[in-house]
Amino acid sequence: xxxxxxxxxLTFWKHYDFDMNEPLRLSKxxxxxxxxxxxxxxxxxxRGWVCVDGVVVAELGSKVLPSQEIKVKRQAAAxxxxxxTILINKPMGYVSGQAEDGYEPAVVLIRPxxxxxxxxxxxxxxxxxxxxxxxxGRLDIDSIGLLVLTQDGRIAxxxxxxxxxIEKEYLVRVAHTKPGxxxxxxxxxxxxxxxxxxxxxxxxxxxxxxxxxxSFILQEGRKRQIRRMCDMVGLKVLGLKRVxxxxxxxxxxxxxxxxxLCNDEQF
Length: 267
Description:
With 267 residues, this protein is α+β, with helices and mostly antiparallel strands. Helices cover 25% and strands 25% of the residues.
């Protein structure tokens, strides 16, 4: 091995050893391991439900090494098992999260009378399920389709975390703003090559479904991304519907109704 290659290898291992011996916040490490969200971790730590190398750690801000063993008590696991995830077919005119500009959030539709009669879940609805129920991703006020609301921090991280690779599929009705059809070169641009907010978009899968409808499959979700993408290539969006998130589809769920994510479903 040359002296330069030996030096590069040594530098790499020094950096690796440094990272492995760098203490991390316990809540951050628990989130990295997929045990829970950071917010859940802080709650469990305060309640004395977290053990590091067999010792209860109940002080917020505590740090651990990546090599240390982290376990949670049965109370934490039981609490997590009670958390629900709800799928709703969001109608137009509702916002995904907090109420704004006089528009109601989609969570107001989570009522017993709006539960889909064909929901296969045996979970019983209770008002406490609305507590800490947050949207895992956005869906514009003028868009419809699959919206996920969850109490489970693990699912929220899986769907909207920075390193998420979960696909989202949309059906988009469009009109070309210029005479004729959209040029093939512009369709290729929609698939890869567009820059938004100074950063190139991730590769997408965009294809025609029929003469006025496109299918978009994305692995990111910037604000009003599809509408902005279409505008860049001379298309006007007339309607937008999300039909799939990962392996979970909207299916026959009626507009304005909801159902629980079943135990055997995974994104």
